[in-house]
Each structure stands twice: as C-alpha cells, then as structure tokens.
Predict the structure.
Amino acid sequence: MSAMPVAHVDPFARPGLLTPDGAEPIVRLTAIEKFFGSNHVLRGCNLEVYPKETICLIGRSGSGKSTLLRCTNFLEEPTVGVVEVGGMRLEADPLRSRSRDHREQIRQIRMSAQMVFQEFNLFPHMTVIGNLIEAPIRVRGLKKDEAVAIAEKHLERVGLSEKRDAYPARLSGGQKQRVAIARALTMEPKVLLFDEPTSALDPTLVGEVVTVMEELAHTGSTMIVVTHEMAFAREAADRVYFIEEGQFIEAGPPEKVLDDPQDPRTQSFLSRLQNRI
Amino acid sequence: MTANATLAAPDVEPPILERIRASQRAARSSFRLKFIITWALILGALGAAIVATGNANPEFSITWAPYILAGAGLTILISVVSIFLATCLAIIGALGRLSSNGFINGAASLYVSLVRGTPLLVQIYFVFFALPQMGIVLDPIPAGIVALSFNYGAYMTEIFRAGIQAVPRGQREAAEALGMPERQVMRRIVLPQAVRIVVPAIGNDFVSMIKDSSLVSVVGLQEMLWRASTVGRSNSQLIQALLIAALVYWALTIFFSFFQAKLEQRLAQGDVRI
C-alpha cells in the first residue's frame, strides 16, 4: 500500500466514514463501458466501494444497473475498463476472454465477489445443505465437515436451520432467497453483489429477505445492491447511485439522493416509483 | 348482513351436481366398454383368420414357444448393454455438439449426421460384413451391440444436447458466480439436471431398442426373431412362430414402459424443479 493519497476514480466515494483513512477500496470499477452488439449499455461508470459499505444502485429497467453489477464479477465481460476486487485487478479484455489465465483471474474475482440473483438459482437437484457445501468443497477446497460447519453457521444466520435437508422446490420464494444469501456467504466473500434480490418475490415475502440483508449491512458486510426497494436503500445504504442510460447521474447518501434529488432525471424516476405505489 | 346471507354457500348441494356426476360416470364406463370391445373384436378376428386358414397348430406352439422365448434373454441383454453404451456416447456427442472447438464440434456433428442419415440395417451389415474386410472381425454379439450403440448414440446425442440446453441459464451463471471452473459447472450442475430432463426420452429409446434389436438377427444372432424365423421356416409354421415372437416383444415393451412410467414418477417427486 502506498503512502500517497488515494486518487479516487469515483467522485462520490467517501472513504474514511467507517474505514481508516487511506484504506483501499474493496471494489473499484474504472471507466467501465459495455456494448451488447452495437447497443451502448454502460458509458463509463466509476465506482468505489470501501470495506463495510453498502451501496445501492437504482434506476429504471434497462438503465444498465444490473449489467454494471454483472460486469463486476465478469458474468458479463466489460468491453472497456478496469475491475478491481479485493486487490485483484483485471482489465477488460473481450478479445482474450477465452484464454486460460484470463478465466482463472475471473474465477479469483468471482470467489471474492459473491452474487445473489433475482431468480435465486438454487441447484434443484441438491438439498439446501448440498447447495451450501458444493462450492466451499469444490472451489475453496475445504473438507466436507468444515464446509458443513460453515454452511450450518450461515444457514442459522438466515434463520433456516430447520430446512437443512429440504430440496429447494419445497421452499417458499423468500426462503429460497435466504438460502441463496447463505450460499453466497459460505464462500466468505469480500463483497456481496445483490441483483434485484426481491424483485421475483411475492410482496408478502420481501420483508424476510430485506431483514436478512439489513442485518448483513449493519454487521459489517460490504454490499452492492441493485434494487427497487427504496425502504432498504434508505435504511441500509451508505450511498445511493442513480444510473440512467449507462451513466451515474447522481449519487450520495440516501437521504440526499432519495429525498432531495437535484437532477430532473432522478426526480422523475423517484416520483414515478412513488406513483406506482 | 343481508349481503353475507346471500353470498353464503348453501348447505344443501343442488341436485344438478349429482346428475352431472352420474352422467360423467356413464360416459366413462361407456368409453371403457367400447374400448375393450374394439380390442376383443380386432384381436378375435385376427385369431379367427389364423384358425380359418388352417394355420393354428397348438402342438407346434407348445413345442417351440419355449425355444423362441429363450431368445428374449439375449434380446434384453443386447438392449441393456447397447442403451448404456449409447448413453455414454450420447453424453460425449452432446458435449461435442455444444463445443466451441471447431474440430470437436465438427467430429460430433459428422457422427450425428452420418449415423442418422443411414439405415440401421446398413450399419449392422457394415459392422458385421464390411469391417472384417478391413481386418476387424467381431463376434455376432459384440457386432450387434456396436451397431446398435452407435446408431442410438447418434439419436440420443440430439436428445442430450436439447436436455443440456434446457437447463436454465441461471443455473450455469450461479455455478460460475460461485467460482466453479467450467468443467465442474458442467459435471456437477448442468449434466445432473440434463439427465433428469432426458430420462423419459431415454426410456422411450430403450423400448424401441428392444424392438430394433431384432434387426441383428440378420447377422445370425440367436435372439428371438432369429429363433422364430428359423423354426417357423423349417416347420412351415411361420405365422405362428412370428406371432409368438411378436407377442413376446409386445409383452416386453409393455413391461418396460411400465417401469419407465414408475421411474418418471419417482424422478418427479425427488426432484424438484425450482
């Protein structure tokens, strides 16, 4: 670590609030651009996330917020830009995306940045505990009993110990998503990526998932959350980023961005969101 | 209060419901009766035609039915071994057909195209009569198994390819996001789910394999059809001999279809789609 003052690529980032000065960000995205064919989805996004921060990305569908999240763990290869996660730095290189060492570096990043999906994506042919120990054993190389111990710890954390041996099909949507969160936690990642974790849920089940996420946010997890749950953003986020047409329009603490938006585009988005309810 | 009273369900069931049920019962039993009569009539007519043309010979049947039936063991053996080998070939073939490597994909696609584009009988002849000219001599049983496995492997390749593609994309993404390498994603996450998807189709193929295995009688394998035609011809009782073989094939397919249905039910319970 250098003694030089950190040069911030993200003008909205405010390190030092919760973390010591000079701390390195867990996630730093620099000038991320993404094209799908000729469709310019991300137009130069810069984002820095410091340890223990919770960041919310908001915006209408198609604005690029999920794509940015998926670029962070290379489920989408950025067309241009630099992704740094937990000290691992990887430049976007779509031409080299099939080479072996590039894929290995991507895998390292994915291990540090675990993702929770909108559609849960639990493995239906494995029990809950099977879902939770699969990657710790096969990816982290843990012994089975170590993996089971870790899995049980996180299953208890999301309040589903009694579902240990159930198959995912027997769980409600909210329970599935809590298992998916526990599965991500068993990899002991440096940052959690949530891709609209409550959007596929019955409205009555959103609460239990949000409660787990808030608990994670308050106990020092580093999180990037793409969401439409403004209540969660207000309660748990350190910063909210409003994204439109692949660019950050406005960012800051939730009370500023959500209650006193400056940009007309942010205002219009938030008023529509309120009218929906 | 009054609104509640009118909305409340009546305690007494309206008589029309019982009449609807009675009429549905009547329709069902009438359907069943017609169904059974049709089977009895057609099968009875066939039997009568055989008797009327002087082709019924109980003595022949009693003498030779056990001999023909004894070929069923070989039929089942060939079918079981071949379906197993064909499944292995099909998994490899499907991975090849989905490979982005031009060589591998090319080889797998050629295999599927060539085998599906030529008759099974030609392939059996090729393995048994043509390969020996190239110095590869196989006994009849291995030759039959090779030809059947190769043929069914190609059809099942396409089944497996479709099965792999039917596994939701999110499954692969979730496994990749956990950090699993490509090979593990396929082996631990995608293939087990693809197999569940294709089990019904494999069951169907197994049942048709039991019937198609009769084709290897042409290379002198003493399975059911070979036995039936041999004793039938030498005794001039082909109709009866072939009928016996046909009935056994029929019984076998019904038997295995039943187990296939059971297996599907069990898979449907244990698994468990999201």
In short: The domain at 27-276 of chain A is CATH 3.40.50.300 (Rossmann fold).
